[in-house]
Design brief:
By secondary structure, the chain is an alpha/beta fold. The chain is built from 12 helices and 15 strands. A hairpin with a 2-residue loop joins strand 7 and strand 8. The protein is globular, with a radius of gyration of 24 Å.
């Protein structure tokens, strides 16, 4: 039998404790091992031994006995950076490296008076990671704003910025947004890893009949396809999967995005540059001079972009884009105020898809439910 430390999985840090899933009743060695390696108090949650072992393997891709070593890299670094009063450069690097490894979509820097809380959004749920002192917070916020080309002297107005970096070996675009609160500036960092995602529509979880419909309409010679849903619902993945259905050798495919998240070989991809006055609308009108067959517009954000997209679709181009609405029925109420006439919408709009991401069930704690229980819960 292996040492008990090989039968547990660190889940997340909460203040001075480490919430840990254990696979057997030998909790004393686990508590001792966690405290010795991390300096944190172990908050243990009991799980079935076999499921915990499988979860460790799937999470770390390594023998269970190596969990503590990886934990030291991903979690303890954050505490060490604060305790040693290292530069904000080192602290930010540790935070973002841990975030990328945990597939975090957003990092929240949230001041609360006595300290500042760092939270990660994982699978749609915010999780507390660490609390940092206020003197460290000020330097960290200033460094993030400077890196994102924001005005560090301006602390009265909200600001937006972005930058590119390679984090934990992954090229990432970091979007930064600031907001003034009564405890100081609050930041949210959205992490957008760049990838060569080669998935097709059939790989994204759609029903077969939906894949068939999308495939047919996304290969039409002209018209407009809108993918809708809230932020972070997978709209870009669906759009790019649709692009891969095009005959990229025979058709001229151009995209304008903010930023380029997924690289598509064979397509001409460009990014907006607000500081240079190059936004979605201007980019789209310029693209029409480049003999396009298919145009992907990352998002319909304003009147100019919406009008230009429908103009392009009405002149013989296939346009794929996204719109932030919560339902299919909300599309008209967004497009008409943008200046797009209902008749133009009716003549050009091929498809509106509204989608959400569904959280996966935990392999360790999922339980079967009878259909009547599911119906009762709605």
């Amino acid at each position: 039998m292996r040492h008990a430390r090989g039968r547990f999985l660190p889940l997340y840090r909460h203040d001075d404790s480490l919430v840990t899933l254990v696979g057997d009743a030998a909790i004393a060695p686990v508590t001792e091992a966690v405290g010795k390696r991390t300096g944190l108090r172990a908050n243990l949650v009991q799980g079935e031994f076999g499921k915990v072992e499988r979860l460790i393997q799937s999470t770390y891709g390594a023998p269970a006995s190596s969990v503590l070593d990886q934990l030291a890299e991903q979690t303890v670094e954050l505490s060490q950076d604060i305790e040693r009063q290292k530069s904000p450069t080192s602290l930010l690097k540790s935070l973002l490296s841990s975030a990328i490894k945990r597939r975090v979509t957003d990092v929240h820097v949230s001041p609360s008076g006595k300290s500042c809380h760092i939270l990660f959004r994982v699978d749609g749920v915010l999780q507390p990671v660490i609390a940092i002192p206020n003197d460290v917070t000020g330097r960290l916020v200033s460094y993030i704003k400077l890196t994102a080309e924001m005005d560090i002297a301006e602390q009265r107005r909200p600001q937006d910025g972005s930058y590119r970096d390679t984090i934990a070996g992954v090229p990432v675009v970091v979007r930064v947004s600031s907001m003034v609160t009564n405890f100081g500036e609050r930041l949210v960092l959205r992490l957008l890893p760049e990838s060569d995602d080669s998935r097709h529509l059939g790989d994204l979880g759609f029903f077969e009949e939906d894949v068939a419909l999308l495939s047919r309409l996304m290969c039409r010679p002209s018209g407009l396809v809108l993918i809708t849903g809230p932020t972070g619902s997978g709209k870009s993945s669906t759009l790019h999967a649709g692009l891969r259905m095009q005959q990229l050798i025979e058709r001229n495919v151009l995209t304008v995005e903010d930023p380029i998240e997924i690289r598509v070989p064979g397509a001409g991809q460009t990014e907006v540059n607000r500081k240079a006055g190059y936004d979605f609308g201007k980019a789209l009108r310029h693209m029409l001079r480049h003999d396009p067959d298919v145009i992907l517009v990352g998002e319909m954000r304003d009147d100019e972009t919406a009008k230009a997209a429908f103009d392009a679709s009405s002149t013989g181009h296939l346009v794929l884009s996204t719109l932030h609405v919560t339902s299919v029925f909300g599309v008209l109420s967004r497009l008409v105020p943008m200046g797009v006439q209902p008749q133009v919408i009716a003549e050009n709009l091929l498809l509106v898809l509204n989608q959400r991401l569904v959280r996966k069930l935990c392999e360790s704690c999922k339980q079967p439910e009878h259909s009547r229980e599911i119906k009762r819960s709605g």
